[in-house]
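Support case: flavin-adenine dinucleotide complex. Customer-provided input:
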Amino acid sequence: MARVTLVPTGEEFPVGEGEDILTAALHHGVNLQYGCRHGNCSSCKHWLLEGDVDDSAASVYAIPRDEREDGAILLCCTFAKSDLVIEIDQHGGVETLPPMTPPSPRRATVLGLRSLTPGLVELRVALDEPLSFRAGQYAEFTLDGGERRSYSLLSPPSSGSELTFCVKRVPNGVFSAVLDGLELGSELHLEAPFGTMFLRESGRPVIAVGIGSGIAPLLSMLSDAADQNCEVPIRFYYGARSSGDLVYVEELAELATRLKDFQFIPCLSQGTAEALPPNGRTGRVTRAIAEDIRDASLYDAYLCGAPEMCDAVGRLLEAKGLPGARIHADKFYPAVESAPVSA
Ligand SMILES: Cc1cc2nc3c(=O)[nH]c(=O)nc-3n(C[C@H](O)[C@H](O)[C@H](O)COP(=O)(O)OP(=O)(O)OC[C@H]3O[C@@H](n4cnc5c(N)ncnc54)[C@H](O)[C@@H]3O)c2cc1C
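Agent response - structure generated as follows:
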């Protein structure tokens, strides 16, 4: 058993054999910035000051070579070979995270499956024990072959031990295949809560942006904001191809009656001006944001879904004056890299 010491915080925790450093930290209640836990997003990049590690599981593309030579490691795919001292880089020291519940395993029984669109499925489960989480966090389903797949909780913390997920079907996807075999009463195993997506209590107005299944963490955050009588202005840009791909429209309409200052702006990339829903726009979310927001410096932003969308919106908002530290992105990286496209 090795020990890890973090500087400058002085926090210490043990790391078990075969356990990556991030998982050990989370299980011991140590809060760190991280994202996908599969070595793809690089959010858990920190700096090894002392000790030996095995970081061969990290993709060579995850960290630039010069940073790797300077001691940069991804905690989610690095294993301790001795006691370690690690300098944590909380994104330039800008954000101290509030206490988060350490993740723990649960058994989940399927309560419902509903096709939302040809590509999106709603999965409802009941847990064997209640779960404490922050709206916006995610769960990891553990599958029989040992694979882990991440899905954001769509339901708010007030929903108790009944959780809802919005799952995108992926061709040849391991979890997508599991989903096809589920029926009412089927049992799943998951661990939760994970992630650092949650509504910061800054009092600043919010820009929330999601596409496709990226609505899941945002709907949880919006429902929780309504439960907490949150009064800050919230603009929610949701991207879909056409009005048939818009999901949870009734739930959003109900939230609009409970939130003090809420605008839902559906953006239809293949929509026509004649067939738009109320407040709807044609084009991608980036176009609507570019048109609507002149000065983004007043806002906090929450971006959820495809990494390319999060990156594009993040760049746009930064160009409009929003400091990067106030742009919180939950990038839905696949657990496995895409197979090369054949010519
Ligand atoms: C923090 C976090 C939260 C997430 N929350 C959600 C959520 O709420 N809902 C949701 O649907 N997804 C979510 N995801 C993404 C989801 O975990 C992955 O898409 C997952 O890998 C899909 O599992 P699978 O077993 O069906 O496919 P896999 O077996 O992982 O992948 C099969 C093939 O499909 C490709 N692939 C996988 N996912 C995608 C994708 N989304 N788009 C295009 N190609 C893909 C893979 O690269 C691979 O080639 C989240 C991811 C993260 C990191």
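The longest strand covers residues 104-115.

Case will auto-close in a few days if no follow-up is received.
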